[in-house]
Amino acid sequence: WRGTPSRAYLTCSNSTSPLEKTHTPHKEGPILMHTSPSGTSATPTIDLNSDLGESFGAWTIGNDIAVLDLVTSANIACGFHAGDPLVMIRTCDLAQKRGVRIGAHVGYRDLAGFGRRNMDYHPDDLRAETIYQIGALQAAARSVGAQVAYVKPHGALYNRIAHDKTQAMAVIEGILATDPTLKLMGLAGSPILNWASAEGLSTLAEAFADRAYNADGTLVSRSQPGAVHHDPDIVAGQAIAFATGAPITSIDGQELVVQADSLCVHGDNPEAISLSRRIIEQLGHVGVAVQARP
Question: What is the pTM of this model?
Answer without folding.
Answer: 0.84
